[in-house]
TrEMBL record:
This is Glucuronoxylan 4-O-methyltransferase 1-like. The lineage of its organism: Eukaryota, Viridiplantae, Streptophyta, Embryophyta, Tracheophyta. It comes from Populus euphratica (Euphrates poplar). Pfam families: IRX15_IRX15L_GXM. One of its GO terms (biological process) is methylation. Its main location: Golgi. The gene is LOC105109205.
Length: 285
């Protein structure tokens, strides 16, 4: 696949920065624990609260594995540090949370580590690639997904989806919705049964005509976000917005009015539940 060219210096810098992010989070949490130990010295009534807090701040096995991995690997994630930081900033306020990621790759261990004690689930099109990555990082939670679309159908899907009632904002659902081709209808139950606080769309592949393209992932993320029942918004991150199809489908389903940040090739949307939006002008935006 087409990959960004990294110079050894750049790769090294990004690996050091990633390790720094994870080690920094770990050290900061230990510092908080130490301060807490000193300030509450002798106050037995706080002992159980302290013990709970200490357990919350302990590094998870995945975080420790992640430090080792990124400190010793020459292969770094494709997103830049500035792009990764957009999602990291949201994770710092929402974690532990439910984080759904389209695509498995060299960034997966990092995303799981940045959401300690939360649920981070990866959806990947290529079963062999799942095996390759999970072999190296067995704690990752990944499922294989079959897409029913191809990149070359993007224009016609956008032109015709409004004629299928089960694609409409008032009727669209995902589980079992075979009629709307943009709906990811056959995902594992875990995906439908959870409410996702953050959704990262960095897959499937969308750079050759027969590739699945990101149309269905974008549509399905919009349906999940609009259906949110919990408080707050759903954060949706879309990578590769330099490409025509990603941009077109984002404009149609994720909506410019919900775009809150654009960094490099990443767009960040905050999508409110449809139930909270008073002005409904028919379709998604
Ligand atoms: C843009 S990539 C996602 C890359 C990921 N965000 C990362 O930083 O590694 C989208 C898809 O390309 C495929 N892919 C990525 N790297 C690959 C590799 N080295 N070999 C085979 N497939 C790969 C996977 O199917 C993945 O879901």
């Amino acid at each position: 696949m087409k990959r960004t060219q990294f110079t050894p210096e750049k790769s090294c810098l990004l690996a050091v920065a990633l390790s720094g992010l994870i080690i920094g989070a770990f050290l900061f949490s230990n510092l908080i624990r130490s301060v807490d130990n000193i300030s509450s010295f002798g106050l037995c009534s706080l002992a159980s609260a302290k013990a709970r807090a200490a357990a919350d701040y302990d590094a998870t096995p995945t975080q420790l594995q992640s430090i080792l991995h990124y400190a010793t690997s020459k292969i770094v994630p494709q997103q830049s540090l500035a792009e990764i930081s957009v999602t990291f900033d949201v994770l710092k306020t929402r974690s532990p949370c439910n984080f759904l990621v389209f695509g498995l790759g060299f960034d997966s261990l990092m995303w799981t580590s940045l959401n300690p004690h939360g649920t981070t689930l990866f959806l990947e099109e290529d079963p062999k690639w799942v095996q390759t990555i999970v072999k190296k990082a067995p704690t990752l939670n990944a499922h294989t997904v079959q897409y029913r679309t191809q990149l070359q159908e993007a224009d016609s899907l956008l032109k015709t989806y409004r004629s299928e009632p089960l694609c409409s904002p008032s009727k669209a659902c995902l589980r079992g919705n075979y009629k709307c081709r943009l709906a990811l209808s056959g995902l594992p139950d875990e995906v439908y049964d959870k409410e996702w606080d953050l959704i990262m769309i960095d897959a499937p592949r969308g750079y050759f005509p027969e590739a699945p393209g990101r149309m269905a992932a974008i549509f399905s993320a919009a349906v999940m976000a609009r259906g949110r029942k919990g408080s707050g918004v759903t954060h949706v991150f879309l990578h590769d917005v330099n490409r025509r199809v990603e941009k077109m489908f984002a404009e149609e389903f994720l909506c410019r009015k919900y775009l809150v940040k654009a960094v490099g090739r990443l767009w960040h949307f905050e999508i409110p539940p449809a139930a909270n939006v008073s002005q409904r002008d028919g379709w998604y935006c």
